[in-house]
Inverse folding.
């Protein structure tokens, strides 16, 4: 397909079918990198040119000043993930990559929800949900409440489902960060 | 010491004797340091010429090729060369000038974000941010370019930083925590591979450019002759195994021999060494070598199972792995006669489907004949640097390469215009060898300005131009697959190549008759300076055999 050797016109469905068969479970990649300029651009660029979508991305300093940690979630079947980690390894500034399996990681994400509350009753309900989700109210105005939720992405999404009916003005998420369970380093 | 003088010290410490480039505003300091640094600089006429010359130099010598360019357009003119070098894993270092640090990001004169532009096509790049970092950056660049899977490294140096006064101390070693190529190969995997070889009934050894990059042609040959293993190589691997050997099947892939492709198709075991199962080799992936198990030896783990799942992957340096594999295999004492039936089948294909063409009875020069005449005239000993197109494929088919680094071409990227400048670089690297640029008329004109470099810098490259007046390979595809609708592939009569050569100060010759070709090529080779021989060949000849794009080996035509 896509070879100029065939004259047949390709229809759009065929094109989409050939390009879009990349579904599988969600992977959390924990990438330790040298804290050098451009390192994030190299990683993002690599994903873009190999045709992978990054679902979320979180970058921050580590316990060592010369290193940064990138936590990246990506949707993919096992085979392409393998190719992506190998390609990532080829970047000189990438030191270590770990594909953290669901049962061997602790993952957290922080999200801020700005929810519309037209009256006292809806505000009370939102605050009740916040309590159930062990979140906290970080800002309040006459007609809105801003809530902070921390947890796995499932939990964040569950909270989103609960408050969306009130009118979700805005939602901001950090993307998950994760560490390996147990004594060993990620 | 000025940072640029430190750069010269670093280059010399890396063993650099030749560099290719063009000066400009942002790399004026570098060129000032180069003035009396004791490094030969070849002043090219276009940065693309300099970049390909550095590649040709690297491919012919195995050393790191170096090209210099200024900021902005100078740097962007290198982009094609960098992409070419990454595709063919050519050890190269590109040193570009950048605008002053205060101007970066302001759209300053001749500013281009060359590290951003080249990010997807470099092995690595370094944008200098502090003058003290420069010496270490240069050494890191060379280390990364030449080790592991070789490739291009860009070092972008802002003009003001290059003028800074720095305390220079020689850099003893580089330390890159994220870069530790595996070289040795897993002993257990090597044993498994040896056993698989001993158990195979229809094996094929398939070598790629990695064998040559690893300087492992000798070790490759030893493995091949440790039994009567049939051997094929990719376009990039030609010369890794002598084409006059009885175990040689010819090149494989789109324009490979039927024998090599049929052998792959029926093989029960394929040993891929420094090869990457490119689409030009496999054809339709789902029908590629359907009966085979794969041993895949490569220094780049990302190549393993990228296109074809490997049953026995071995990551490491072919030069280190192959002797171990050969020794393990020999120790097993496999029965050579088990391959008799396989060879019988192979000999049958060789007899039935030799490479062939219909030669003309009159004076017309068939392109395949031209390659054979070139082989005769050079005793098969020349270093041949090719451009891209039909002539490249014919050379790969008909010029029997017998040693590594004898065949230089642009395989992965398929860069028209590569031939002349890379021949120039090869000649600089190997002044005692005959270096021939085999060009097509479509390709040659893309970088023909480098004839001026050859004349001025006294680099006696011999350009043998296969002139058919067409973008021949595109024309062939239009003929075969697009109902002969020849859309914009005719080159017309211009230029007059003899006059053009003359205008550059080179010797120009024209051959239109078969009877005069051999003599003319010999005359060209015996001349002291650069020569361009314009050889008029059959206009509409197709390159066969061929696996039509997207089809399988057994669908070969022609």
């Amino acid at each position: 397909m896509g070879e100029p050797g065939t004259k047949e016109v390709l229809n759009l469905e065929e094109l989409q079918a050939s390009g879009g068969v990349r579904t599988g479970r969600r992977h959390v990649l924990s990438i330790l990198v040298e804290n050098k300029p451009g390192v994030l651009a190299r990683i993002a660029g690599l994903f873009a040119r190999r045709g992978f979508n990054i679902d979320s991305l979180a970058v921050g300093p580590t316990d060592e000043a010369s290193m940064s940690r990138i936590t990246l979630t990506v949707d993919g079947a096992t085979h392409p993930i393998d190719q992506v980690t190998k390609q990532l390894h080829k970047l000189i500034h990438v030191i270590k990559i770990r594909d953290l399996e669901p049962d061997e990681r602790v993952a957290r994400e922080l999200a801020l929800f700005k929810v519309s509350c037209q009256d006292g009753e809806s505000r009370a309900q939102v605050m009740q949900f916040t309590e159930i989700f062990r979140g906290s109210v970080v800002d309040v105005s006459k007609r809105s409440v801003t809530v902070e939720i921390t947890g796995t992405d499932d939990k964040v999404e569950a909270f989103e489902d609960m408050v969306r009916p009130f009118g979700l003005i805005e939602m901001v998420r950090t993307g998950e960060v994760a560490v390996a369970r147990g004594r060993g380093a990620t | 010491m000025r940072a640029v003088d430190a750069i010269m010290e670093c280059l010399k410490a890396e063993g650099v004797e030749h560099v290719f480039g063009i000066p400009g505003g942002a790399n004026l300091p570098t060129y000032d340091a180069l003035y009396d640094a004791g490094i030969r600089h070849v002043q090219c006429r276009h940065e693309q010429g300099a970049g390909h010359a550095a590649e040709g130099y690297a491919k012919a010598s195995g050393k790191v090729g170096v090209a210099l360019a200024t900021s902005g357009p100078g740097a962007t003119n290198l982009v094609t060369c960098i992409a070419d070098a990454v595709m063919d894993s050519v050890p190269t270092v590109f040193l570009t000038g950048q605008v002053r640090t205060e101007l970066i990001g302001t759209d300053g004169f001749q500013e281009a974000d060359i590290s951003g532009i080249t990010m997807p096509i470099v092995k690595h790049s370094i944008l200098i941010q502090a003058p003290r970092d420069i010496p270490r950056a240069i050494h890191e660049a060379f280390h990364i370019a030449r080790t592991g899977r070789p490739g291009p490294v860009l070092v972008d140096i802002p003009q003001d930083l290059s003028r800074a006064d720095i305390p220079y101390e020689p850099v003893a070693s580089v330390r890159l925590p994220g870069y530790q190529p595996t070289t040795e190969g897993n002993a257990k995997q090597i044993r498994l591979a040896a056993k698989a070889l001993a158990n195979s009934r229809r094996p094929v050894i398939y070598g790629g450019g990695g064998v040559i990059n690893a300087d492992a042609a000798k070790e490759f040959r030893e493995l091949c002759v440790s039994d009567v293993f049939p051997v094929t190589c990719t376009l990039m691997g030609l010369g890794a195994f002598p084409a006059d050997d009885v175990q040689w099947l010819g090149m494989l892939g789109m324009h490979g021999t039927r024998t090599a492709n049929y052998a792959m198709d029926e093989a029960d075991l394929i040993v891929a060494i420094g090869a990457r199962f490119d689409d030009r080799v496999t054809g339709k992936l789902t029908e590629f070598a359907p009966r085979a198990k794969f041993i895949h030896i490569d220094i780049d783990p990302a190549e393993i199972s990228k296109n074809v799942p490997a049953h026995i992957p071995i990551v490491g340096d072919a030069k280190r792995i192959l002797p171990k594999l050969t020794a393990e295999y020999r120790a097993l004492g496999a029965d050579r006669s088990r391959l008799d039936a396989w060879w019988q089948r192979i000999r049958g294909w060789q007899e039935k489907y030799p490479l062939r063409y219909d030669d003309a009875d009159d004076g017309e020069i068939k392109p395949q004949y031209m390659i054979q005449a070139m082989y005769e005239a050079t005793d098969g000993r020349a270093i041949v640097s090719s451009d891209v197109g039909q002539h490249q494929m014919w050379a790969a088919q008909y010029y029997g390469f017998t040693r590594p680094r004898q065949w230089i071409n642009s395989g992965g990227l398929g860069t028209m215009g590569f031939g002349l400048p890379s021949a120039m670089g090869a000649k600089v690297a190997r002044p005692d060898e005959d270096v021939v640029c085999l060009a097509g008329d479509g390709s040659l004109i893309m970088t023909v300005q480098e004839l001026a470099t050859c004349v001025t810098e006294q680099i006696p490259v011999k350009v043998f131009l296969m002139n058919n007046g067409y973008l021949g390979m595109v024309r062939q595809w239009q003929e075969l697959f697009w109902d002969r609708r020849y859309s914009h592939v005719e080159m017309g009569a211009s230029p007059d190549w003899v006059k053009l050569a003359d205008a550059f100060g080179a010797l120009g010759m024209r051959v239109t008759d078969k009877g005069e070709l051999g003599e003319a090529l010999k005359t060209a080779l015996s001349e002291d300076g650069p020569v361009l021989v314009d050889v008029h060949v059959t206009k509409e000849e197709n390159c066969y055999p061929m696996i039509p794009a997207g089809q399988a080996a057994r669908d070969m035509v022609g």
In short: Strands of chain A lie at 26-34, 54-61, 67-75, 94-100, 105-116, 136-141, 144-151, 168-173, 177-180. Chain A has two domains: 13-103, 106-180.
